[in-house]
Amino acid sequence: MIYNELGKTGMRVSNLSFGASSLGGVFHDIRESEGIKAVHTAVDNGINFIDVSPYYGHYKAEMVLGKALKEIQRDRYYLSTKVGRYGENGVNTWDYSAKRVTDSVYESMERLNIDYIDLINVHDVEFADLNQVVNETLPALVKLREEGVVKHVGITDLQPENLKWVIEHVPAGTVESVLCFCHYSLNDEMLLDYLDFFEANNVGIINASPFSMGLLSQRGAPAWHPAPVALKEACMRASDYCTEHGYPIEKLAVQYSTSNPRIATTLFSSANPQNVLKNIDYVNSPMDSSLVEEVQKIIGDQMRVRWANT
After folding, report:
1. Which terminal CB of the chain, N or C, has fewer other CB atoms within 10 Å?
2. Which residues lie below 8 Å from residue 88, measured CB to CB, with a gap of 6+?
3. pLDDT tens-digit readout, 34-63
4. Which tens digit of pLDDT belongs to each residue from 114-159?
5. Catalytic residue among 56, 59, 77, 96
């Protein structure tokens, strides 16, 4: 496992990290005992960064993860969770007010069985009034940072332009990391356009969804996926090509997304211990660079599709 510095936080994080959304049954129902074992498997095999949110499974992911963390020494992992996006009884809710996000931090710590949070993120700022994020949400989290309740503060979003805007409108050092998903993978490298900006502002970079929400898988994208049909078809052709060469596209996708040292870590999610081990094995194996080139040729003009515009 390779470990990279996350900006100026002082955290050296594994280049492959554990996203706990699956523990909330976000993708399908899970067996809680298997989910807890998946967390142990990740940490026991070198993963030291875990990301979750109260939104995932409407608090369930944090509760299941908390049961696992009770059994793991606190100095063996860094823990990231989020504020602003929630849900209950199947209904999604958003609240980026100072009071709610402050209360949310303490609620998350209780569910997670921890007494501090390494990294607290404002979740999916695209759903918020960005001015509120700048003037109310982030100052509330900075106050918690000053009090030692949280160690570091970050923001997350699908659209990197939103992350850039927030950083440009807050005092230097307010935002220490960004989390962006689906924009550094075999089919989409948009995140590269923003690396210089983030680095110039001492902001660490977290990538997520190396499989592009199922596009880069042998099973193919789910019906709800926002990608255009042409991109779905191109990715399926790429998957078939990898299969023909005895190299699952999932393996290539994980290897590619974790290969850029300017991106500290890439999150994947699974509540299956065997899948966790498989992905760790992928990232610890040498990547076939020539196959990357062939796959990207197959995907072709769709390489930089801006999903946010579809």
Report:
1. C
2. 58, 59
3. 999 999 999 999 999 999 999 999 999 999
4. 999 999 999 999 999 999 999 999 999 999 999 999 999 999 999 9
5. 56
**Which of 88, 90, 89, 126 shows the shortest CA–CA distance to 104?**
88
96 as an active site residue: the answer is no
For residue 129, CA distances in Å to 105, 126, 167, 226, 263 come to 20, 8, 14, 23, 27
Cα angle 6, 8, 12; round to 5: 35
Distance CA 112, CA 39 (A): 13
The answer to whether residue 308 scores a pLDDT higher than 70 is no
Listed by start position, the domains of the chain span 3-214+251-287
Q: What is the mean pLDDT of the chain?
A: 94
Tokens 């440009």, residue?
168
The sign of the torsion formed by the CA atoms of 242, 248, 252, 257 equals positive
Question: And the tokens for 296?
Answer: 């990207």
Contact of 16 with 1, CB cutoff 8 Å = yes
Superfamily of the domain at 3-214+251-287: NADP-dependent oxidoreductase domain (3.20.20.100)
**Any idea what DSSP says for residue 171?**
-
pTM, two decimals, is 0.94
Q: How far apart are CA 238 and CA 294, in angstroms?
A: 8
Is the distance from CB of 232 to CB of 244 less than 8 angstroms? no
Confidence label for 27 from pLDDT (cuts 50, 70 and 90): low
Residue range 160-196, pLDDT digits in tens: 999 999 999 999 999 999 999 999 999 999 999 999 9
